Amino acid sequence: MQIQQSFNLSHHNTFKVPAICPQYFEPSTLEELKEAYQSCKGNFYLLGEGSNTLFIDNQAPLIIRPKLMGKSINMEKNAVFLTVNCGENWHELVQYCVANNYYGIENLALIPGSVGAAPVQNIGAYGVELSDVIQSVSWFDFSQQQVIELDNRACEFGYRDSIFKQSLQGKGVIVSVTLKLAREFQPKLSYKGLSFEQKKLTAKHVMERVISIRESKLPDPKKLPNAGSFFKNPIISSEVYHTLIATYPDMPAYKVTEQTYKLAAGWLIEHAGLKGYRERGVGVHQNQALVLVNFEHVKGMRIVELATLIMEKVQEKFGILLAPEVRIVDRRGLTSISEIMV
C-alpha cells in the first residue's frame, strides 16, 4: 500500500488549494483498506478524486484515498448488472458502458470524480440521477470491519443526498457499486438541450451532446480551478414559488411534486448581481454563476468567504438560503459553512 508522510494535496483537489496532510494512504485492496483505517490515529477524511472537496486549512486531516479497481458483469436477458469498484473513474465508466451497449448512464457523462463517490452525492444531470440505476452498494463498515450490502432503498437516496452523507457519514466507505443497466436503449431527453434530428438516435449521440453542453457551460478545472456546481439547486414549496414567480416571471423552475419546485441556483446568484464577481484571488465564473473559481490558487477559506457572501446576497434578495454541494474539510475532517462562520 502506498503511504506518504506530509503529503501535498494541491494536485489532489480540483480547486488546487494548498493543504498538507500528515499521512496519505492509498489502499488498492480491501485488506489494505482495513489496514489503512486501523493505522489512522485521529481524524481522517476519505478522498475520491478531489472534484467535490474544498480544503480550508493549511493542514488537512489524515487522508485515505481508496483505489480499488476493476469491474465484473452479470448479463441477463433484459438487463446488465455491472459491479464497479470504488477507485474507477466515473466518466471513463460512462464511456465504457456506451461502447459496450449498456444503457442508462449516458446522460451522466463528464461528471468528475470516482465511482465510489458518486452514490454519496447521488450524482445527477440532464434528467437522470444515479439512484435510477443503482441496484446495490457494497459498504465497508469500520466498526464491524466487514462489507455490508445495501440495496437501493437502504441507501436512502434524495436530491444530492444519501445515507452516506447522513447517518453513515464517517462510519465506513463504499468499496463497490452495482448498476442495473438496460440492454435496450431508451433515451431520456426531458432536458431541453437534448433535442435531436437523427432518426436513429444512439446512446453515443446522447453522451456526446451531454459532453458538449457541459463543456460549453462549465470551465475545465485543469485550466480554471473549480469543483463544478458549488451549490445545490434549492427546492422550495409551491407557496414560495408562486410568490417569487409573481415578482420574477422569467425565473426558471422545475416542478418536482405538486407541493415543491426546484429553482436554478445559478440564476439566483446571477440575479443577485454576483455573476463574474471577483475579489482576493477567487470569484464567480463569468459564464456560469454556479461555479466558484480559485483563480490564484489561494487558501480555501477565501472560497468559503465568497460562498458566504453569495448565500447572504441570495437570501437577502429572494429569501432563499442556498446549500453548498461541495464537501468542506478542515483540519479535523468534514465541516460546514455554518460551523466555520460562527
Q: Tell me about the largest β-sheet.
A: 5 strands, antiparallel
Overall mean pLDDT stands at 95
Question: How much beta, percentage-wise?
Answer: 25-35%
Give the helix tally.
Answer: 8
Structural class: alpha+beta
* CATH domain topology of the largest domain: Uridine Diphospho-n-acetylenolpyruvylglucosamine Reductase, domain 3
Query: In CATH terms, what is the architecture of the largest domain?
Result: 2-Layer Sandwich
Q: What's the N-to-C terminus distance?
A: 39 Å
CATH class of the largest domain: Alpha Beta
Please give the number of β-strands: 21
Fraction of residues in helices?
10-25%
Number of domains: 3
Morphology: globular
Calculate Rg over CA atoms: 20 Å
What does this structure look like?
- With 342 residues, this protein is of the alpha+beta class.
- It folds into three domains: 2-64, Uridine Diphospho-n-acetylenolpyruvylglucosamine Reductase, domain 2 (2-Layer Sandwich), CATH 3.30.43.10; 71-214, Uridine Diphospho-n-acetylenolpyruvylglucosamine Reductase, domain 3 (2-Layer Sandwich); 220-340, UDP-N-acetylenolpyruvoylglucosamine reductase, C-terminal domain (Uridine Diphospho-n-acetylenolpyruvylglucosamine Reductase, domain 1, Alpha-Beta Complex), CATH 3.90.78.
- 23% of the residues lie in helices and 27% in strands.
- It has eight helices and 21 strands.
- It has helices at 30-39, 90-99, 118-121, 203-217, 238-247, 265-271, 300-318, 337-340; strands at residues 2-8, 20-26, 44-46, 53-55, 62-64, 71-75, 79-85, 124-125, 128-129, 134-141, 146-151, 172-182, 226-229, 235-237, 253-255, 260-263, 278-279, 282-284, 291-293, 327-330, 333-335.
- The chain has a five-stranded antiparallel beta sheet with strand order 6-7-12-10-11, with no helix packed on it. Strands 1-2-5-3 form a four-stranded mixed beta sheet. A four-stranded antiparallel beta sheet has the order 13-19-18-17, covered by helices on one side.
- β20 (327-330) and β21 form a beta hairpin.
- The protein starts with a strand and ends with a helix.
